[in-house]
Write a structure and sequence with these properties.
Largest sheet: 8 strands, mixed
CATH superfamily of the largest domain: Aldolase class I
Number of strands: 17
Radius of gyration: 20 Å
Mean pLDDT: 94
Bound molecules: iron/sulfur cluster
CATH class of the largest domain: Alpha Beta
CATH topology of the largest domain: TIM Barrel
Helix content: 25-40%
Number of domains: 3
Oligomer: single chain
Strand content: 15-25%
Distance between the termini: 50 Å
Order of helices and strands: EEEEEEEEHHHEHEHEHHEHEHEEEE
Structural class: alpha/beta
CATH architecture of the largest domain: Alpha-Beta Barrel
Strand order of the largest sheet: 7-8-9-10-11-12-13-14
Low-confidence stretches: none
Amino acid sequence: MQEALFYEKLEDEKVRCLLCPHECLLNEGKIGICRVRKNISGELYALNDGIISSANLDPIEKKPLYHFYPGSLILSIGSYGCNMHCQFCQNWDISQPKDSNFNLQPIVPTSEVIKTALNQKENIGIAYTYNEPIVSYEYVMKTAAIAKENGLKNVMVSNGFINQEPLLQILPFIDAWNIDLKAFDDSFYKRLTGARLAPVLETLKTVRRSNAHLEITMLVIPGENDDANEFKQMVDWLANELGEDTILHLSRYFPRYRHQSAITPAHKLLEFYNIARQRLHWTYVGNIELDIGSNSICPKCQNIVVWRKGYHTAVRGLDEAGNC
Ligand code: SF4
């Protein structure tokens, strides 16, 4: 079994996990909030190490990443567990597992994932996605390091709830991130995810300062995070702290798991799209087909440079260096 990185041993066989801001204090035999890190005899172990819940060759646009190798495919793998407990989780069957969900599954060695990635035609790399990859930290780190040596790209699709030191150590191995910004309201995070807003904002700033590519996704949930004033504050923060070229995806909500709001109406997504476009050059609307919000439009000449319909993509107005 894989011993965890980032924890401290305490008296009476207790441990404190330091991977994410929950910093779970665990007595012997106890499991963390993420349900996949366990104190066994005073040492912390990653129970989900090498356990793959699903693997698919996905369009990169499905992550979503729109400005990172548009039109390409990427081997996407997921495991089990999450350090948030979102009431509206779209993948709750793997993010909120019981032990029995995964403890009888075979362990897939890193070498197997790399071999599969290299054997897939037109595959650019490996995306760590579906559940929260932060809680598979050790597996992602070792896989990403070897993937990089083999010329593959690494992508993290994450909630961004990670402590700064583990983030800084994994950053050099990750080429692109899509990070959820679920709301601009700490009480939303506490009430509906069991986490906090401030560490996610810190993660966004740290990733933005790095060399990695960053795109951000917000799931717009009626009655929960769809206040226009709060959204304006979020957009201002993104523009001021991360820059006006920040890429934002607004995603349509569908009822899932323990949360049963109405599906996000198209007019709300359009309203948010128009608010975001006042400060951000690159805003997209996903999980719905609309006339606007899927193409990339050059902020200087206003021509379409990347056309999209569903997961079909055509780069139309860019040269090989990506210039309009
Ligand atoms: S990674 Fe899991 S065990 Fe560690 S602090 Fe976060 S929720 Fe707790």
